[in-house]
Amino acid sequence: MSEETILLEVRHLRKDYGNGAVLKDVSLKLEKGEVLVLIGPSGCGKSTFLRCINGLEPIQSGEILLDGLSITDGTAKWSEVRQKIGMVFQSYELFPHMTVLDNILLGPMKVQKRNRKEAEADACQLLERVGLLDKKDVYPRQLSGGQKQRVAIVRALIMKPEIMLFDEVTAALDPEMVREVLDVMMELAAGGSTMMIVTHEMQFARAAADRVIFLDGGEIVETGTPDAFFDKPKTDRAQRFLNTFTFEKK
Amino acid sequence: MQDLGIRVLFMGNNFIRLLGGLWITLKISLLAVALSVVLGTLLGVVMTIKHPVIKAITKFYLEFIRIMPQLVLLFLVYFGLTKSFGINLSGQVSAVIVFTLWGTAEMGDLVRGALISIPAHQYESGAALGLTKGQIFLYIVIPQTLRRLIPLAINLTTRMIKTTSLIVMIGVVEVLKVAQQIIEANRYTVPDAALWIYGTIFFLYFLACWPISLLASWLEKRWKN
Amino acid sequence: MDIGFITKYVPLYIEAAKLTLRLGVIGILLSLAVGLVCSLALYYRVPVLRRLVSAYIELSRNTPLLVQLFFLYFGLPKVGIRISSEACAIIGLAFLGGSYMAETFRSGLEAIEKSQMESALSVGLTHAQVMRYVIFPQALAISVPGLCANMIFLIKETSVFSVVALPDLMYVAKDLIGLYYKTDEALLMLVIAYLILLLPISILAAVLERRLRYAGFGN
User: Across the beta sheet with A194-198, what order do the strands follow?
Assistant: First the structure.
């Protein structure tokens, strides 16, 4: 890992909630083009971690650096930082009062002040990539969950972020729709996007990740390449976690 | 300087008279609410009958009561009935009639809604447990209807207490009328009585209504399950 | 039914209706403004302001408009504040209506989930932009039925304006009954006048509510 290619660095992040620590002492580095998958049991803090990176949760101590510059010391404006970090949520959160196209264009037009024609062309191109160009003038309520999520991904992508964060984006979808969203994410990964993904889809994690990070109880218990981690986890906790996904035949 | 004005409240039995006036208002509201609960339940049951004429009449009744300002209804009963039927209704009786009609309409609508909606999803689980129609009605429908009726009845009480203030416009001697009498009687001795008396009445109404609204929201929260 | 009487005095009712409408509309607009400001104070939990607003809402919702008007029109002059009849009516209506509008706006705002704010912020919008493009439009749409109901309520409340010496519909009706004993005719015109004032808005409110429910706000 060379200094120039480290896009995101997290140093000793600590986040408290109520009277307990949700994240205890988390440090990691994310390289350009790297796909990092975060897995772990519920409540281990992985979603909270993503939300801290995006500034949706305040942190108690530690530092986050984007492109070498701190974004947590109070000097950076979150509205600018968030243009570089795109996030897709579990509940898609499309704006129901706007069409698909308007949903996508809100960011480019109002935040980046781009020219409408150019932004629209970009949007259509992205919609085509995810197979939803024919839905551009439709309202979110008329879409299925999988379609909404793909639109949410486009909405984040059109801002041309450096890093994309995915927070359990398929967890709320019916099984038939999970695949279409994961396919989009695989395509992005193969295309060289820098991604941090929180997911429960183990097979997808194995196929898409460059590196797997196992979080439990608010700290990083183990990291490794997908094959190494899934075949031969080094820690007991990781092994126990992976066992919850496998069934022994009776 | 300001003590001069407020002392009118403590002169003679002024304050008692004011309270007496307010009591008339409260009496009418409480009576009307009580009658409305009973008649409203009956009306609600009637409204579930699928006869077209009954539906038309009840719907007309509901819509008319809802859209007309209460003062207009008071005029219709106080002036209209007196003229048309030759009976001389007092302002108080007219008020009770009007407010009962109003309350009955609201309660009736609520009861009807409850009767229609509840059995739909509760009947199935009740029947699945082996209850008869009568038992379902007694143990499932009535308690749930009551849970909706009571907060509404309380909310209606507050609104009625406020609206009964209108009866001064049909000549009933209630708190505002008493106030006017006191102010007039003390025109020279306490020139700024009006400020203090009307201010006091403002707070008296607040003291009458606010605890009831608090009770209603407390009950609502308690029964949120 | 004395038709001649009716035709003779219809103009009087029309004038009174116009007065009611004029003062009612101004009162409603003011209460919308007051309500909006108060709802923001509550939504953002502004330290001192939110307590004042809460107190205001409780006070105005638990007291009748009639009493408020008596106080404004007969009470205030005793401390030297003399307000015209029309101003009293408008102030009273705005004072009462403001709290109802505030509650409606506030529940509209709070109906929008926090996650909408978060996903909008994640796209890079500033807080102000999120409110303007994402939150307010949705909150407003949700509030419309409540706002309409409030407006209908306020128009009905204007029926007490005669107490501050304004020649409104109730005043005209009472006057005619007292002078000519044409009770039926006077009351009929009164009912029709209020139907004309209120039916259109009621129907509009019902249509709007149905439209919005169809649009299915809130995924």
Answer: A85-88, A163-167, A194-198, A35-39, A211-216, A219-224
